[in-house]
Amino acid sequence: MNWSISFEPLLSWPWLAAVLAPLALLALVGLWFRQRGSVLRFTALLALGAALLNPVFLDEERDALKSVVAIVVDRSQSQDIGERTRQTDEALAGLQQRLARFKQFDVRVVEAGKSDAAEERTDTRLFSALEGAFRDVPPSRIGGAIMITDGEVHDAPAGAPDFSAPLHALITGNDHEKDRRIRFENAPRFGLVGKPLDMTYRVIATGDQAGQVDVRVSINGEQVSVERATIGQTMPLQVTVPNAGRNIIELAIDHEPGELTDANNRAIALVDGIRENLRVLLVSGEPHAGERTWRNLLKSDASVDLVHFTILRPPEKQDGTPINELSLIAFPTRELFVEKIKDFDLIIFDRYQHRDVLPILYYDYISEYVEKGGALLIAAGPEYAGESSIARTPLMSALPAMPSGEVVDKAFYPRLTDLGQRHPVTRGLDGSNTEPPHWSRWFRTIGVKNPEGEVVMKGADNLPLLLLDRKGEGRVGMLLSDQGWLWARGFEGGGPHVQLYRRIAHWLMKEPELEEERLTADGRGMVLEIRRQTMSDDPGPAQVITPSGKALIVRLEKSEPGIFLGSVETKEIGLYQVGNGDLTALAHVGPINAPEFTDVISTEDRLKAPVEATGGSVRRLAATSALGGITGGVTLPSIVPVRSSGVASGADWIGLRTTDDSLLKAVSRVPLFGGFLGLGLLLLAMGSMWYREGR
Length: 695
Hints:
Elements: E1 2-7, H1 13-32, H2 38-53, E2 55-64, E3 67-74, H3 84-99, E4 105-112, H4 126-133, E5 142-149, E6 167-171, E7 180-186, E8 190-192, E9 196-205, E10 212-219, E11 222-230, E12 234-240, E13 245-252, E14 266-274, E15 278-284, H5 291-300, E16 304-310, H6 333-339, E17 346-350, H7 360-371, E18 375-379, E19 402-408, E20 415-416, H8 418-422, E21 445-449, E22 454-458, E23 464-471, E24 474-479, H9 485-488, H10 497-508, E25 518-524, E26 527-533, E27 542-545, E28 551-554, E29 557-560, E30 563-569, E31 574-580, E32 583-589, H11 595-598, H12 605-613, E33 618-620, E34 622-624, E35 630-634, E36 638-642, E37 653-657, E38 662-671, H13 675-694
């Protein structure tokens, strides 16, 4: 029982003061002057005041509340190293068993660090988890917290946490661990394709390890060099960015005997390759309606440096005008096609015909340029079918089709072939998904025979319209109509000429995103996403190797013609190898070089400040023998309930605070001046005063 007294006055306090104050003054004056009956009058006044104040005895029935104790369990990936998982499980089971003996504790177990969200796996955030466990608990009921961790906690405060209860840390692992790791010190995010990129890195080892170590340098999964690094020193590294888009630079060192883990023996840097401006040579025949279409498109592309020549006055033209009076630039044939032909990424002949402007030998140079990796585009007009066609020169060896001599002047809608619907150059062209296509008609097709390569668009009478072919190490494209300018001019609503022409040019210049057969993978959070670009109907499943070496099979589903997608949820942070057929790809899932693996040595240092600020303790779980060796078990301290002002830790025990808070269930009221008892006491006091005054 909890007895207490309470006053429930019959009048408001101002009225009580108005009534009792004068009477009290008179009673005190009587006592001061020792008048007869003053004691009885004062006693009667007290009885009247008590009756008006109405004192009530309260009997409260209460249930004691429990203190809330949180056990925060570190389940991050660094806890998978060695015996740490076993130590953690044994410690958790032991603590739960010991705390179950104390009915005054409400135990909450919180596991942190195992979320599938990449942003939550970047580092170990135990104090955030602890804050969540106590979010609905008033400060007076927090009994304390126990953390089971390897000590690599990345959100530990410099001082006391936001509660005043004891915090204790039980550290997994042991104090004789050894590890070696590698990390990038400086890794630029961008680099020019084909140009050297300067980076720096460092190999770090525990203790006083010194010496040198071999560092394997790989780019996009292919080893490019082996560097010699001095442990502890910042080392320079120079790599050449091979491709546009994302490139994975990987550094790796060998596993050392006795080392904790080799998860941090690799360091990853993602470098986006940026091409220098592509150089394009555009040679136009005599002026025509669509001459400026290619020029305007290429000039509008900031990544292209364009050199454009139009043949306005061929050698056979004789009109009597002296050469020195012509405001024309002589065509620098030798400079372009002999001395600097290798500097161009693409050569375009737009309705060009052989009229002795180029020496016949130079066509051999162009064919050789294509064979060795160059790109050539023929934008054909009626000239291609005539006697002066460039197909009748040594360039014929580089061309994907020879002219049939036929020029079909007939209205038609350019249409995609079955291959064209899957080919990245023409797939998904705006307006291609309707019949007829939602773009304007063209009116001329140049006939060819025995086409090679891939016919991705067809013209009038199903004749080839757009050919794409590979010759040696280079590529050749052939657009068999000169009517593309109708789309550019908006005739009948126009068409996607910018989209089509730009794709053709970039495919010829080997843009990775436009490759017919391409495998890419990327990490989105903790999901590995795979994209397969192919001309086949079914590329089959993808094979995935996880950072730990496990093999997975991922099914690829068709999302659109030529595109197959697959994904798999993962739990490991690191570099994944993906394969499909002859293609391979790399992808990094999770944060790059996450703090979780930056330092995996178990430590007591990070938690000492916040723990000691609460009066708690930090101690290791690993049991030791009398000779100082690790026995393999865990040593748990005893648990002692303590008052809020008591000591919270000792040599072999930890304290948790008990609370004085309780829950009120019922209240019994006993009025002292209620009923006949109160009336009798009041009458007795008044009667005694009257009796004394009457004598």
